[in-house]
Structures are given as C-alpha cells and as structure tokens.
Write a structure and sequence with these properties.
With about 325 residues, this protein is of the alpha/beta class. The protein has helices spanning about 1-15, 35-50, 65-70, 80-90, 145-155, 170-180, 195-200, 210-220, 260-270, 285-290, 300-310, and strands at about 25-30, 55-60, 75-80, 105-120, 135, 165, 185-190, 205, 225-230, 245-255. Strands 1, 2, 3, 4, 5, 6, 7, 8, 9 and 10 form a ten-stranded mixed sheet that branches.
Length: about 325
C-alpha cells in the first residue's frame, strides 16, 4: 500500500502522461490583476491548441513564489524574471538566505520588464543622484524590485543609507506619491504599469533617465540586464521624449524534470503560434528575443529547438 501511495504522489509531481497520450502541466504565473496571469493564460491556449500538452494556469505570488513551486514540484512550468532566476539558482542577492534552487531551466525569454523610476514632474529630481536625502520606495522587502533599486542606486554611488527608504508595492507607492508623502518610487514591470498610469491621472509625472555610464556598469555587473528606451509609444502618453534605462526579462521557465520533447513542443508552439497569443505582450515573442538575456541555462528541449532554427549555436 505504501508503495502504491508513493507512486500516486510521484504521478502527481513528476510529468506523467494522461489519458489518450495527453500530458498535463501546471503553469505558475502571478496575481490575477497583474500581467503574468492573463499572459500565461494566453500562452496556455496556444500550447493546448498546438500540442498534445494540456496546461493549467495557476495564480501565484509571481517570480519567487513560482520558482519555489517548481522546486517543490507543484508547478512544471512558470513565468519568472531572469534576475530572480539568477538569484535563486546561485543563492545570491535576495536568495542569499535560502537554499539555492537548481532544478530550474529556461524555456525562452518572453518580454522586457523595465526598471522605471517615477517622480513628480515638478519634484526637481532629474537624476538618480538627486534621490539622495529623498523619500524613495524601493518595492516590497526582499522583492526583485528592491534588488533592482539597490543595484541602480549603487551605480550612482548611493546606498540605502543615502535615502529615506520606504518599502511599498506599486499600488502603495502610487498612493503615497498621490498623497505627496513620497518623492520617488521604483517599478520593475512591463510598460505601461497600471499603478503608474492611474497615478498619472492625478499627478504630472516623469521617468528618470539612466546615464550611459550607469547602464554600462549595470550590464557589466549583472548579465540579466538589457538596455531599453521608453517613450510615449510604450504606453505613457504624457512622456516628452525618451528615457534610457535597463530591463530584466520575463522568462518562461521549466523544471529540469520536464520531458525534452515536451519542452521542444512548448517553445515551438509559442514561436510558430505567436500571432495567436491573445495578449499585448505576445507581440514581443520571437525566436530572436527568446534567446536574449538568459540567466539560467536552457532546458535541453528548448535548446534543441532554437539550435534547429538557427538562432542559437
């Protein structure tokens, strides 16, 4: 009986074929009000339509939670920021006090999540250096946003001690700035961010530009960053001109236990079915973008697909 129960548990956690050869996988995404959950749902529709894989989308606490779910076997694939993946895999940064998670692998990069620094238009803050002595929200404690904020500040020679640190999520930060109790806040997310857009209806805003030197330093020290620019075409119609900053990548990840052919089929379905991904972020999905800013090695099945189509050596 114990052996039977053990095999039943394994059947739930390991990737097992279902009736009629169908494989059932759980995809961990994010909160229902965020981007990961609906985007994950849109990807799942394409995967389900184009393969013999049935993907069930689960709401979650996003990147860090998703990685923990992969580690525990509760999810088989997930969406996570590539910087959080790096911390988890190597046991560094926000993961320094936790056990490393080494059973994660990359299926493909999906779209950039831009590091945005929001200030009031009349704040007199024009550079990250001007944040010294100001009240700055750096995201929730232990979040990827907080890690990004500390890295950006360090590129300007600033530390936590140089600012009045506030730890709020996007919505809380926007509320505090609306109430004029906050001078700046960091957002790492796809543009446009809902909290920023809602705040812009009540306050005139600006995004801070990062210097070329700061961007070069960040990209040199942290391989998960890419250089991006943001302007009014990226969903913030109130922007005048463009700003330069960095971004991490929202990434589709998988357990290393995922069957190689299943991994191949998933990325093939998403690349070849990109036009059918019914979400705005689907526009970023392409073979070229999929292999950019990889912080944890590809799953063998994904690597084989990208090698076969000639975008990966």
């Amino acid at each position: 009986m114990k052996k039977v129960l053990f095999l039943m548990v394994v059947a739930m956690l390991v990737l097992v074929a279902c009736d009629e050869g169908e494989l059932r996988l759980n995809m961990a995404t994010g909160g229902v009000a965020g981007t990961y959950y609906p985007f994950g749902g849109a990807m799942a529709v394409v995967i389900n339509d184009r393969t013999d894989i049935n993907v069930t989308v689960m709401a979650s606490g996003a990147s860090a939670d998703n990685i923990q779910q992969i580690a525990a076997g509760d999810a088989h694939i997930a969406i996570a920021q590539n910087d959080v993946m790096s911390y988890a895999f190597h046991g560094t940064g926000i993961w320094a006090e936790r056990e490393p998670v080494t059973n994660i692998s990359t299926l493909m990069s999906l779209y950039p999540e831009t590091v945005q620094i929001i200030v009031l238009a009349d704040s007199g803050i024009y550079s990250v250096a001007d944040l010294a002595g100001r009240r700055v929200s750096v995201g929730d404690v232990g979040s990827g946003v907080e890690a990004n904020a500390m890295q950006v500040l360090a590129a300007y020679g600033l530390t936590r001690d140089d600012i009045t640190t506030v730890n709020l999520g996007f919505g809380g930060s926007a509320d505090a700035m609306r109430d004029l109790t906050l001078d700046a806040f960091f957002v790492t997310a796809a543009t446009p961010n809902t909290a920023v857009m809602e705040l812009s209806t009540a306050r005139d805003l600006r995004l801070l530009n990062l210097s070329d030197a700061a961007i070069s330093q960040l990209m040199s020290e942290h391989a998960f960053y890419v250089h991006v620019s943001v302007d009014a075409n990226d969903g913030y119609p109130w922007m005048i001109g463009a700003i330069n900053t960095v971004a991490v990548q929202a990434t589709l990840i998988a357990s290393t236990d995922l069957d190689e052919q299943a991994a191949f089929d998933i990325v093939q379905a998403l690349i070849e079915g990109q036009a059918d991904i019914a979400h705005a972020r689907g526009a970023y999905v392409s073979a070229q973008n999929a292999v950019q800013s990889i912080s944890v090695d590809f799953h063998p099945g994904a690597r084989r697909f990208f090698q076969e189509i000639g975008v990966l050596d």
